[in-house]
Amino acid sequence: MALSTDLLEILVCPVCKGDLEYLREQERLVCHACRLAYRIEEDIPIMLPDEAESLGGEPSADQAGSGEESGK
Ligand SMILES: [Zn+2]
Asked: Which CATH class is domain 5-54?
């Protein structure tokens, strides 16, 4: 089953506290402000910035100076 609308309404981006868009076909919750996509596994949204996928493009907040990225 899909996520309930009740749940979707209370979910916000953990980074910016903004609204998320639910992409049913991709099973993702997308924050356009952060350009992050949160996975939904077994109907449970994984609301962890560390687990989110970057949508690419230009991030809204540049972090000049920090050359290291975790992961990979
Ligand atoms: Zn956000």
From this structure: mainly beta
